[in-house]
Structures are given as C-alpha cells and as structure tokens.
Amino acid sequence: MTQLPYNSNLSSAKLASVFKSTSATYKFYWFWAILEEVEQGKTVITKSDIFSRMMALSWYTVNYFRISFGKQDLIQDAVRELSAIENIPLDASKEHILNKLRGSTHPQTVSILAHFDKNVPHKFLSPWLGSGNKSAIYQRSISTTSDAPYSLFRDQIVIANHWKYYFEVNMGILKAFCY
Q1: Disulfide engineering: 136 pairs with which of 1, 29, 111, 132, CB 3.0-4.6 Å?
Q2: What would the 3-class secondary structure string for 3-27 be?
Q3: pTM metric for this prediction
Q4: Given its phi and psi angles, is residue 7 left (phi above 0), alpha (psi -120 to 50 degrees) or beta?
C-alpha cells in the first residue's frame, strides 16, 4: 500500500487505500483537482469546478503523450470531445481550459463533465464510509463522525477542516503522488 504523509489526527492510511485498486485514472485526477482547489483557498468546491479541473489536468497527458488510460477510462475521450466542442486549442494553458469549461453552457460540455459525477465523488470515500448506494454514501458523508475528507452534496463538496490542513501542509507530496 502507498505510504502518504502521516497525521495523528486523521487516517492517511485510508487515503492511501483509495488508490490501492485503480482501474481508471479518475481517482487520481479527482483528488489532484481537489488539492488544486484547496490550494486556491477553497473549502466549498463545486463539482463542476472539480470536473473542469480534472480535464485541464489531464489535457497535456492526453494531447501530447497520447496515452490511453484504457477502454473503461473516458477521460481521454472527454478531453478530445471538449477540445472540439469548445474549440480549445491543444496547446491551451490550464487556466484557459478551466475558464472555457467552467463558463460553458453548451449542453454537450455539461453532459460530458456530469458523467464524472456518477461514481467518483462517492466511491472515493469508500474507505471512510463503506460501500452502498450513492444516496446512503452522501448521507453518511455529512456526519461529523465520518472523518471523511469531504462531505458530499448534489452540486458541491465541502472539505473537512482537519483534512484541509493536512492537504495544505502536504500539498507538494500529495500532488506529486497524483502526478
């Protein structure tokens, strides 16, 4: 199992266990996007901002290295489709991509980004909240006893204060782990 920075006030071992079994890149890009949003000072983060950032973070890998993440992983397809729909150049900066995707009302763009809400936000929390149906996980995530890194709501997540501190203190290590 991957070792992440230890903290006696939370379960970094559970965070590491999130990445124990990964058949797609979603968990890594989801977590990396959250870290960058926290780095911007946010604790209440819209899911659309996270999904847009996931696309921006994977943009270079998909477009320059042309890496295939596998058939079940739709990030590379989403990046290519969004590039065409939104007319975003392949060499666009991360900020340009973020601004374009966050500001888009194009129905296809909204649909592509919404696809990532099906599993990633609640399945990421399984080490803390167990498995179960999506609505049960959402409900358990808002319990103050869950110790999960964030609480889930329909359109946003809210970062727990003790996890925010852990993310800030270990930002470089955690982002390098995702990269």
Answers
A1: 132
A2: CCCCCCCCCHHHHHHHCCCCCCCHH
A3: 0.91
A4: beta
* Rounded-to-integer distance, Cα 28 and Cα 177, Å: 9
What six digits make up the tokens of 131? 């498995």
Local structure of residue 32 (DSSP, 8 states): H
Return phi, psi of residue 152, to 5°.
-100, 135
Query: Within 10 Å of residue 6's Cβ, how many Cβ atoms?
Result: 11
Per-residue model confidence (pLDDT) at position 66: 60
Q: Give dist(CA 59, CA 55) in Å, integer.
A: 6
Q: Which pLDDT score is estimated for 70?
A: 55
Residue 111, class by beta-carbon neighbours within 10 Å (0-12 exposed, 13-18 middle, 19+ buried)? exposed
